[in-house]
Structure formats: structure tokens, C-alpha cells
Design brief:
The protein has 333 residues and is of the alpha/beta class. It folds into three domains: 187 residues, 3-Layer(aba) Sandwich (Rossmann fold); 40 residues, no CATH class; 52 residues. It is 54% helix and 8% strand. A six-stranded parallel β-sheet has the order 3-2-1-4-5-6, sandwiched between helices. Strand 2, helix 2 and strand 3 form a beta-alpha-beta unit. The radius of gyration is 27 Å and the shape is elongated. It starts with a strand and ends with a helix.
Length: 333
Amino acid sequence: MEPAIFLDRDGTLIADDANAGHPASVVLLDGVPASLRRLRDAGFRLVVATNQGGVARGRFTEVDVDAVHRKIGDLIDAATGLKRTIERFYYCPFHPQGSISEYTRDHPWRKPSAGMMKQAAQDMELDVDRSWLVGDSPRDIAAGRSAGLRTILVTRDRTRLAEAAPDYSAATLAEATEIILRHRDDRGMDHGLDRESDRKSDRKSDRKSDRKSDRKSDREETPASVAKPKRTTSRSTPATLTRSAGSLTRKKGGNPRLRRALAELTDEVRALRLRRAETGAVRIAAMGMQLLAILVGAIAFLNLSEFEQFARWGICAALIQLVTATMLLFDRS
């Protein structure tokens, strides 16, 4: 099992502003590619885990979120010279105060809950004890702490730092990278002992709470007071395909390399489908040109008895087809 760095997106990799949901406005923060390259070279797998409540608020769509993630991945890969520098992007589009009904609710993936980190650790078979979370807000730190990760808050705000109480703090991602590389082998030292102490304390308090609850239930519970469990469903996000691939290979007993290869293939297929789903102005024009070429070709065949007319219409159809192919070629590049 390998360690990972869980990265918040807005405010950590790109600017946290009104343009964060629009691919054309994506700009990496200073030092991000170099820092991620150092972390990859040190053996860490990189995962983004980000709240995207703007989907629930109607500011942008899940398609926009996917496009932003592709843009971030492309910019980072171009700068680092690596392929898939960031291996996975997990996001939560839900918000309890949203304006789009299907997204207006809380969700276990929404930070400060640790759902995204726990799911990624399961999907990718990560070594949580040697993994880190780097973010710029207290909710990031709370989520990382709940997932059992070491945490770094990237901020210069002392109030935010006091509220979050992270394991470490840094002014930039580059400084956070230095901290991670300096303390990467601290597994099982003070931080790990503190977490173990916390887990023991939690178990002890849980047992006390259970005993009190049982005594209270014995005195007060009647058949009418027993609540039926609520059925809840979790709307799948773009990570659904990778989760399904991971569970499939685990059921079949595949080895880790096979699981990783299948997950990567699933991501590539999904990205290809999204690219095909994007119909731009050039493709629309090419479709119109193709229909025109078919129409002109049909007219040419109607004049088959008159060779000169047939040749003129045929040449015209061929030229239109050539223009169409050229447009599609430039659109792909």
C-alpha cells in the first residue's frame, strides 16, 4: 500500500474566486506544478478532494466541474512532464442550502465529513497512516483529521489557523511540501500515538455511552417508541465509475496492478465520453458542411446522364467534403 497526498482544490491548487467553476479562467497558483512533481517523485499518489457546492447553488454544472478538473490536470501534466500527475479527482456537488433541488442536501462526502478521503483510500488501497491532507480551510483539516490523516493548513490567517488546529501550517504549497518530505517517516511517532490515544478514548466513551443508553432504553422504551431506520440513497458523482471498477476487481480477487490499470482505463473512457459530448461551434459547422456535401453529391448523381454537369457537381461535393475533413482535423488538434 502506498501513501497519498489529499489536496483541496480552490485556494490550494487554483485561486478560490468566482471564476473557479469556469475552465477558461483556470490558473494554477505559483509553485503548484513543482511541488506536485516533488511529491510524486517522493512516492506519494496525488488525489484531489473538493467541495463543489456551486453545483447545488446553480452557479455551474457537474460538466463544468469535470472540465475544470481536466484543465487543471492538463496544465499540471504539461508543467511536470508526467502523465496523470494528479491521479484522481473526487468532488461533492451537494450543499444543504442549494437552489437546485436534486443537490440540496447534506452528504457524507461533503467536508468536514471524511467521505471522499475514505472512499479514495478504499478505491486506491492507500496507506492512510502515511498519508496527508493539504487544504486552506478549517473544514479541510477537520475532514483530514476524521479520516486519520496528518494535516497541513495552507494559510497566513492566524484566526483561521487557531480555528483549524492542524498538525502543521504553511504559507504556500511549496512550504507544505517541505514539511511533508521532512516528516514523511514520522509514522508511529507523536502524531500516530496521539491518534491511537484518541481512538482508545473514543472507544471508552462509546462504551460508557452505550451502557447509559441501554439502561435508559430498558426503563423507557416501548414498542411504539422504536424508530424505523430511514432509507437513504447517495447520488453518484463522477467518481462512481472508479468506485464500481474498484469493487468489481476486489470481488474477482484481482491483484493491485490489475485494479489500478482498470481504474485508469475507466477514467480515460469517461474523459473520452465527456470530450465527445462537447459539441462546439466548429463541429456544428462541420455537420452542416457534411449534409451539404451529401446533398451536392446526390445532385451530381441525378445528372449522371450529362457528364459535364455530373463532373461539376461531383467536384463541388468533393471540395465540400475536403473542407469538412479539414475543419474536423483542426478541431481535434
